[in-house]
Amino acid sequence: MHQATLTDEALAIDGGEPVRDTLLPYGRQSIDEDDIQSVVNVLRSDWLTTGPKVGEFEEAFAAYVGAKYAISFTSGTAALHGAAFAAGLGPGDEALTSPMTFAATANCVLYQGATPVFADISADTLNLDPQKATALITQRTRAILPVDYAGHPAQIDAFLEIADRHELIVIEDACHALGAQYRQRRTGSFAHMTVFSFHPVKHLTTGEGGMVTTNRPDLAETLRRFRNHGISSDARQRQSQGQWHYEMVLLGFNYRLTDLACALGLSQLKKLEANLSRRHEIAARYASEFRDLSPITLPVTREDVTHAWHLYPIQLNLEKLSATRAEVFRALRAENIGVNVHYIPVHLHPYYRDRFGHRAGEFPMAENAYDRLISLPMFHGMSDRDVEDVVKAVRKVLAHFSNELPCPIR
Ligand SMILES: *Cc1c(COP(=O)(O)O)cnc(C)c1O
Confidence band (pLDDT; 50, 70, 90) for 6? Predict the structure, then answer.
């Protein structure tokens, strides 16, 4: 079925020996003894939730990103919901966002009864294109949600300028970009609100968890209330003040992150810089190993940013391959490389198609990228051997499917 080449080794998918014996996931957490001990200490303490670890984690996190306030939530999705609420989104309002993201970015707009409006992405970074977004601003537009795809910061200065002109709120979905920098400032320090996730595949984990950072005290207060039923002071404050009185001032939710989770977050935060360096090392290794492979395009880093490398998404140059993305994907999986695809453009999900009449062809950049994307394994706990396996498998599979002979193999 497949054209054999001079350098061909039998692919695992065709019955050959796989590059690895066990599946290497595309992302996973690292938990050490310090992490475990810090959670155990909380289990032995008085406060499992709404205790001191919550404020400690929030303060340390705010200090790290360089924001005035950090408000924790039970997930990145809950944090996005809080941000959409604090932005004042409601029925009749529109919010602009990228189709090249996880559905939660757009869903949070729907939670508020507002309408997500998608704009196409830039070809290099796959981030929301500020010009395309600007073209879709209407009287109803109230917010813009750029996404730092794969860990490459969006053009926040451009979005803040647009927001200034049109009185919009910028909610940066930085779930991929903890530790990234844009023009020498850390992601999380300059959008009106920035949202992070602590899911195990992200840079720092609390099991499930999320955070919103902001410099605006009014937004910080609304976010704190929203995550606690809309109540204006939390239980610990009341206890320490010996008061029973509290007031519910808005309709909120219970989105409180526990002390167990916050203790884990605090412990993980200490290792973040080292983990980011490791991700940079892995990205540099991939870039140098794959630079001569014409069947793929590597992710681009613009000059004014420091990437956070949550993902390492390559794009297949399908005209140089005798296989589809699905075939290359299956072949890599058979080699036990846990590749993934980020993302199916949000507007193409059945829910969005049915509810808003979205269809294929609306956002050519996002859809064209989607047809060619494959995320290679990228996480700070990868060993050199793991990285080597990915390199070997990618070279093996691409050599097999390449139209251009001979494909260089080392
Ligand atoms: C992970 C992620 C989310 C959601 O975070 P959860 O903590 O899983 O709820 C939202 N947006 C993007 C871009 C993400 O990667």
Answer: very low
